Amino acid sequence: MPVLREVVDLLDGWYDPATAEQWDAVGLVLGDPEQRVENVMLAVDPAPTVAAEAVEWGADLLVCHHPLFLRGVHGFAATTPKGRTAHLLAGHGVALLTAHTNADLPADGVNEALARAVGIVDPEVLVPADGDGLDKLVVFVPHENADALREAITSAGAGMIGDYDTCTFTGSGEGRFRPGAGAHPAIGRVGEVETVPEARVETVLPRRLRAQVVAAMRAAHPYEEPAYDVYEVAGIGDRRTCTRGHGRIGELSETTTLHDFADRVAEALPTTAHGVRISGDPDRPVRTVAVGSGAGDYLLDAVRASEADVYLTSDLRHHPASEFREHARGRAGGPDDAPALVDVAHWAAEWTWLPVVEAKLREALADRGDTVGTRVSTTVTDPWTFRA
């Protein structure tokens, strides 16, 4: 039986809290890292009904997509719904972990789970995330120290290009400097101009690894003050090589109609009072589908610029949706040239991620010889409860 710390490490490894948006609040909210975990429940919202379900079932850990406390608090007295939820969980020894925007973008994340749930084959990222950008590091080092420096920076994660690793380029030149008062130069003397044959080592690295690669470079460099540059490489938006980003896009296994695709969505997602709303000709052909989990207004421009026949998302507002549908792309030559829209409940779209996490958790723990009981909550926490 694993301890909480081990389960958290697995989840954080798949959905790194460091990649969450700055405004977000993710990670372990309640719980002792050394407590034993026998049962894990997964849900979209840490709502009072979900907390009660977790306690009744005997969960030791509740994993939720949405945060309990999104903004800072000075306490959580049981005088508010959120406070009562925290008290209920803590009082019964149920830990709480949130994976929100850090779970939206990566492979096996919320966007990808939604895409696969509605039948997209081999979904690709719609808009690459900023954190997936590349940096280029250029550093100048004496020739005799170049091998050690290359080893240090590539071991820290630099030099990956496609299926190749330890990729660097080295040129030769002449470095010139004069150590000032208070310096302790590895080469040369204080107050005297020194000329040193140096190697120019260049490599690329994921932007998210910038700090650790630069730290490794400085640790391996013989100079007190290495001369180096870090450049942000312009992205080319190649969805084929990107595994982390906003939304997903891809093709269905065969062409269908908008009406039949909407029926497929209704079957794939949990039933809610919100249901499935559609904007478009029911008979229009649908093959290429874009999806955006959560509130998807912000991806409308990217969808319009794509080859999507339909965009599936949640929380679409009247004016952005109207303007999107009125803006023909001029490709099909007809009035319904803009992608169709399918709007579903926010809760239902993001629920599709829970079985994915459950399967990953069970498999990873089984590989280590551990087992836990798991449960995906089907308690509907969508705020809309019926239609008149």
Give the number of helices: 12
The average pLDDT is 92
Strand order of the largest sheet: 5-10-12-13-14-11
- Main structural class: alpha/beta
Helix content: 25-40%
Largest sheet: 6 strands, mixed
Describe the structure.
With 388 residues, this protein is of the alpha/beta class. The chain is built from 12 helices and 15 strands. α2 runs parallel beside α3 and α6 packs antiparallel against α7. The mean pLDDT is 92.
Keywords:
12 helices; 6-stranded mixed β-sheet; globular; 15 strands; alpha/beta; 388 residues; 5-stranded mixed β-sheet; single chain; 28% helix
Summarize the structure.
The chain is an alpha/beta fold and 388 residues long. The chain is built from twelve helices and 15 strands. The model has no long low-confidence stretch (mean pLDDT 92).
Topology:
Blueprint: H1 4-14, E1 27-30, E2 39-43, H2 48-57, E3 61-64, H3 81-91, E4 95-98, H4 101-104, H5 110-117, E5 121-128, E6 134-142, H6 146-155, E7 169-177, E8 194-206, H7 210-220, E9 227-233, E10 245-257, H8 258-268, E11 276-279, E12 285-295, H9 300-304, E13 310-314, H10 318-326, E14 340-344, H11 346-351, H12 354-367, E15 373-376
Parallel strand pairs: 2-3, 2-15, 3-4, 12-13, 13-14
Antiparallel strand pairs: 1-4, 5-10, 6-8, 6-9, 7-8, 10-12, 11-14
